[in-house]
């Protein structure tokens, strides 16, 4: 129900500044617009990242770019000296101008047949990025024309990105623009000084688009969402322009960067750009801010908000105002975003990275926060982690159906910190009951709740991939991280997902406090075995970073590391430089770990000794050669009593067959099961067969939520049948999971 109220005289303008993702909108503004819809608050949104990208990478955009570089070359006082790579691209400028519109159209999914031409390697010009593409068939195979073409087209754009970096704007990047200025910027000095300089080439494009949108919307409040350090500089440029040219418009900033980095903000200069900075969930703080600008709330009633009070940066938090429950915030609304303009790119030959960057996904959340909330490297002291609140499965699927109707997209990425297994099960059942066709993926914890049957259920409901943290593949360090898992458990769970046809991506970490050289080598061996056994399909190594709001950052002595400085900056404070006196020299392992992983992901080089990946001496692994194989070969423990049986399959056809042997005649019931891939039969005594047919009908997911083991046993006894355990645990029955009989 919409709330009738007097609003600001103009809509709220929600902006994601450049650059986040090229393939899909970052969801923050869509989440806020969905919430504002429930309150009757008019809001307009824009992703300036994709708008700037399209303006730059088009025929006219490249013509202007090349012209600008050539003018710099002719500058008599400071002529531009081109690198060999830039000179090559400039020499081929006519080919780039001729092909750019077709490449962008292809990456937008509008010219799929162009893939064959791109893959000939004669259509597009190639510069330095293509030096790494000697064996694309090894990476993509003979059937991966679309993906191969997307990768080639992405490298073509990356070549142009390098040209821009070298000659136009040193900070340019498709998803990390000016990230070095924003990352761990304890002082605002560098950013502030950069913002006093004339506009860069990219700034000019950005501000031209922004100004046109501001004239169109005429907002009283602009909300800039800054999820990452790479959005910060452009956010400030946008805010600067608004303050200078639209002085009656207020500017607020929020998002992941503010939530993690700006919690101790004190630099007054920041408020030359922003009027307000809000922290954590934005719904309630922005609603109160709007009421404050309406004159209905006093300044002291603001919630989780930095602003200037008498020239001093002041944090105001009205704790009497509670946050909204997740069931109250509405369905994300992507209206106003240019959904047909997003670009599917494949920058890294990595299966999960291609999911992140290829195709447009509707973003949703199953639960706010993390149900585990213990990992010692994580910001578990902050609200976005510690405040756990799941959403009802029916409401989640309602939102999925609403987004399908609005966007036409059936793909979903659940952006939870870790989606709860029990809620994933309920969502899967709800999807199947409603007979909607979706594909989706989520972040998870590799916990034992993900049984074989649960993974099969998730696959049936459209789950195509999961990603989760294996972190340092060492049981000692996993215990120190308080991850609540073991390497063997991860292997078992990953096998369940993989066997169900769900791709598994593991987040890997090196450099955790006290990690030794031996543990790093052993961790790589664990990863090697996980790929060799087909248990993992994708992974990525990250170097550990100590953050201010994690248990390690809050209590470094416990983890035997030391902060380099105790000084707290006046601007951003999150990443903490630290010394690990008892651990290895972690940084030197990065290249070798990543090189080995790239080969393992493509099924190569498993036979090589680990020493081959490093240019310095490492110890031999202490992990037994078949550790992972043995772990995934351990028989499942029968935990039927804790689950309910459900039937997802097609009802079998039944035929009575006459049997005889040595003068003895009897009847058997043959049950013929059809699946999407195959068919098989089982034979049972007719009374047992009739009981099973009746049971499968009752277990059908359309008729309820299944029956417990005790209820099934009771129904068996009521038919006057004996020996239930012998019947239920026998091979014909235990194989019925292949046809859709699951215990979940």
Verbal overview:
- The relative contact order is 0.08.
- Mean pLDDT is 91; it is low at 1-8.
- The chain is built from 29 helices and 25 strands.
- Helix 18 (421-434) links the parallel strand 11 and strand 12.
- The strands form seven sheets. A seven-stranded mixed β-sheet has the order 2-1-3-4-5-6-7, with helices on both faces. A six-stranded parallel β-sheet has the order 8-11-12-13-14-15. It has a three-stranded antiparallel β-sheet with strand order 24-20-25.
- The protein is globular and about 110 Å long.
- It has 744 residues and is of the alpha/beta class.
Oligomer designation = single chain
Total helical elements = 29
Share of residues in helices: 25-40%
Rounded radius of gyration (Å): 29 Å
The number of E-state strands comes to 25
Q: Which regions are unreliable across 5 or more consecutive residues at pLDDT < 50?
A: 1-8
Largest pleated sheet: 7 strands, mixed
Q: What shape does the CA trace take?
A: globular
Q: How far apart, in Å, are the first and last alpha carbons? A: 37 Å
Strand order of the largest sheet: 2-1-3-4-5-6-7
- Rounded average pLDDT: 91
Helix/sheet category: alpha/beta
Share in β-strands: 15-25%
